[in-house]
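Incident review: delayed structure delivery

Summary: a single-chain prediction request sat in the queue longer than the usual turnaround. Root cause was a stuck worker, restarted by the on-call engineer. No data loss occurred. The affected request and its eventual output are reproduced below so the record is complete for anyone auditing the incident later.

Affected input:
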Amino acid sequence: MNKFLKWLLAVVGVVVVLVVIAAVVLPMVIDPNDYKQEISTAVLDETGRELTIGGDIQWTVFPSIGLQLTDVSLGNRSGFGDQPMLDIGEAGMSVKLMPLFQRKMEIGEVKLSDVLINLRRNANGQSNWEDLTAARPETEPAPSDSGRGAGSFTVSGIQISNANVIFDDAGEKTELKEFGLQASNIELGRPFDLQGGFSVNLQAQQLAGDVTFGGRVQSEANGDRYGIEGLEISFDGTSGSGAEALALNMDTRANANIDLASDTATLADFVLQLHDLSVSGGLDVTSISGSPEFAGRLTLAEFNPKSLLKALGMEVPVTANDAALTQLQADMSFAGSMNSTNMRDLIVKFDQSTFNGNLKIDGFDTPKLAFDFEVDRLNVDDYLPPTDSGGSDATGAGGT
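Output delivered after worker restart:
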């Protein structure tokens, strides 16, 4: 037994020495920059696009297998100009070598910075990315190695900075700029924090501003369940252009979960705030990979519609009764699919009136409405332009 242990230790020692020697010798003997042309040729053969690596390729072997690229660009599709479709200032990642022998994948920090993606679609509906996403011949699936155990997977961190996307849709531009994302200590089965932000400019909608997001990502070790606890998304920007541009501030909070095994998803503790408008509720979705069906509840807290219209830069109606259009709140449960929705137990309090009932919408393309409402009272004249005549009360029940 002692001889066997000595022999085993000797073998392990030789392997370690060989790995260390390789780590020292390989970077001295092999220069990856000598293979730039071969890499570009392979990409050209596969995609029809020219890949240019302007900077040096740096690599390491031990204790981590690492690669770092700078000044990388991918050419555009023919007919979409000479500007590259993709520019990357710097990209790099590494994988620790020794844990691989224990079926553990330990990735160091993944870095991506100074990225510019140019997406274009012309008036004929052709895009400069569809040739890259075209269907390719299916290949035989690789043999499963599930019997050997799944091993583990960790990433020490992800750092994305100054990533930009410009989408030119037949002259209409959508811009996402200065996208950044930070996450650390990523491992299945363990929570980790994620945060980031970007600037957005929607030309057609005349909407521009800054978006920030963050939350604590949860996952199960088997990869079946994922979630974000304390998800927060904020928008701080403007709507409109020039002197008529108005400030627009929106905050959203929620807890989100998706279960791949049961094919379900949930959105709990949802809150959306837009000026003094506050919407809260929850949502459950089933059959998310097939024909999704959803159910949930929404509550609209009391707010002043006239004040909201003014804050959004919309025309505020002048009413005979100054108190009209100053109070609105609602509560409802709902259920539906991708083609219909049914709002049940709908309660709307509108100024001094209360509406109770149900509303069903079938076919979103050519919708058919069915409703059943009861109103305790409604003075229609309150909502007309100011006149000298008096008002009248009305009540009603619904129809189709």
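Verification: The CA atoms of residues 162 and 178 lie 4 Å apart.
Action items: add queue-age alerting; document worker restart procedure.
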